[in-house]
Amino acid sequence: MLKLTRKSLLISSILLLILSCSPKHAEGISNKMNERYVVPYFNEPQAEYKYDASIQVYGNDLHGFFLLKRLGDQHARMALVSDFGNTLMDFEFKGEEVIVHYVIEDLNKKIIVNKLKKYFQLITQSEYELTFRYPKRIDNMCEPKTLSYIESIPTRYKSSLNNRTVFLMINHKQVLSKIIQSKRRKTIAEVDFYTSNTPDDSIQLDSLRFESKKMPIVMTFKAVD
Known about the structure:
The protein is of the alpha+beta class. Helix content is 18%, strand content 52%. It has 3 helices and 15 strands. The protein has a 13-stranded antiparallel β-sheet with strand order 2-8-10-11-12-13-14-15-3-4-5-6-7, covered by helices on one side.
């Protein structure tokens, strides 16, 4: 009986250790919400943005510059131009409407154009309606965590774009670090944003990377020095 008791205590101790060190929620329960979030990138009225661009799409490697001009609230126009100044793509965004002005012949196929429209819209969307907030998840609770560490963990929010679910990872300074687009609980596209602080403490987008999980499309943009 004594051996059995000791064995039971040992098992209980191991289970307690595992459970106490398992991932925990740093904040309260998930909650519904209805809040407008303005993306801190590509959103200055009449501002023009220029990034080095590298795009792999259906076996085509495109290199040049990604150009975008914010024309108004939820209104922008973007173009992808080659190093020699030739236009490769030209799209205009008005709310959730996307107008195709030009796509090079090699990519001017309905299925490709439709995907590019949605993907560029995901990258350049200026605002989202947040409808749900998830609690933060902290790994390895056995190690002490500082407040700054907990704050550095982005919070996941739920929204939608063109009737597709999107999840936004936003930190305590309202900086967007990642967008995940999903369908039937499966990730279909991801956008990662890499930022830094400017001397006046504003946020600067240094680069971004887009990858489709369903189509052979990868895009990388880097700020021009």
